[in-house]
């Protein structure tokens, strides 16, 4: 059994149709979508968590500041309150701080240089007396803290902070995360391709094997079973199918050979004389027509000999049909030995033979061959030690000199043979000689 070798998973001209590439792209698409969704969710969660942390920090700082300015508010010490606000302004991202009396009047105020102008701040109507309230926008947050002294509500502290630093931190973190995600996707692409090349190697081998078989029609190859998994079982079934196809192909080939042999045998039976082995009359008729057509197309000289054995009836009557058959076989062998390789010698039936002589250089070549043939048949012939008085009489007709079609050429050679019989047998005559007679 031929074991199928490892194959290249990127066949030439088929990279765009590679199963490995398609699965890698699909896996990377799913992975990228998942990571981007995760990135978006984590980024959003990070933003809200960081903002809540800043809000909590701002609320705690505002509460501490409110406790510090409460006595100053009670004793109406605006300078001390302003100094306290200046100390509090060292807090990063601080935009503005306002202290209001319980009646809503502005008591102390601080804002960052260059900060965006903000209108007068007033406590929201829903501000609780004992709890702080924080509001946020896209760019800043505001913390409203009640100022209390010994449990008595004496005013309101308002702190406004910028969220720009938080934005920059989140953007920086997002950029780093995006770079890490891109690096992870690149590494995943290489890893997925390597893993899938290894995992899909058996399937690619099966595909390549099928392609080779479609080109070579060689079903003796087998695919290698790499693992005992679904692909391994598929490979086993594929190999079983190949084995059955190979057996079926061998049986079919053997059957076709037998039918071809039988057809050739039937062809021989239909076109060959069973006694002498020479072509028979049916074969002669087809060959005569074919050679006439070729000679007419090529403008070549062609001849036909009609041969009749002399004294054959005497041999049959005196020595029996078995001896007659032996004589026919020997005569056929002798005549076949003197003709050219391109000539066609046929037995028409009984003691009659015909010889097709295509592509003759001249008429003399045919006459010389007729004389050699007569001499070969007239040579002493013995069967069971008895001399057989056998000879041959030949009629010779030429195409296109004597006739232009198969029937006329055969009749012309037949008339020439009878003219030779009348001339004394064991000789030949041409068709023109028969016309003169």
From TrEMBL:
<dbReference type="InterPro" id="IPR033417">
    <property type="entry name" value="CHASE8"/>
</dbReference>
<feature type="transmembrane region" description="Helical">
    <location>
        <begin position="169"/>
        <end position="189"/>
    </location>
</feature>
<dbReference type="Pfam" id="PF00990">
    <property type="entry name" value="GGDEF"/>
</dbReference>
<keyword id="KW-0548">Nucleotidyltransferase</keyword>
<feature type="domain" description="GGDEF">
    <location>
        <begin position="300"/>
        <end position="433"/>
    </location>
</feature>
<dbReference type="Pfam" id="PF17152">
    <property type="entry name" value="CHASE8"/>
</dbReference>
<protein>
    <submittedName>
        <fullName>Diguanylate cyclase</fullName>
        <ecNumber>2.7.7.65</ecNumber>
    </submittedName>
</protein>
<dbReference type="InterPro" id="IPR003660">
    <property type="entry name" value="HAMP_dom"/>
</dbReference>
<dbReference type="InterPro" id="IPR052163">
    <property type="entry name" value="DGC-Regulatory_Protein"/>
</dbReference>
<dbReference type="InterPro" id="IPR000160">
    <property type="entry name" value="GGDEF_dom"/>
</dbReference>
<keyword id="KW-1133">Transmembrane helix</keyword>
<feature type="transmembrane region" description="Helical">
    <location>
        <begin position="28"/>
        <end position="50"/>
    </location>
</feature>
<keyword id="KW-0812">Transmembrane</keyword>
<dbReference type="Pfam" id="PF00672">
    <property type="entry name" value="HAMP"/>
</dbReference>
<feature type="domain" description="HAMP">
    <location>
        <begin position="197"/>
        <end position="250"/>
    </location>
</feature>
<keyword id="KW-0472">Membrane</keyword>
<dbReference type="InterPro" id="IPR043128">
    <property type="entry name" value="Rev_trsase/Diguanyl_cyclase"/>
</dbReference>
<dbReference type="GO" id="GO:0052621">
    <property type="term" value="F:diguanylate cyclase activity"/>
</dbReference>
<keyword id="KW-0808">Transferase</keyword>
<dbReference type="InterPro" id="IPR029787">
    <property type="entry name" value="Nucleotide_cyclase"/>
</dbReference>
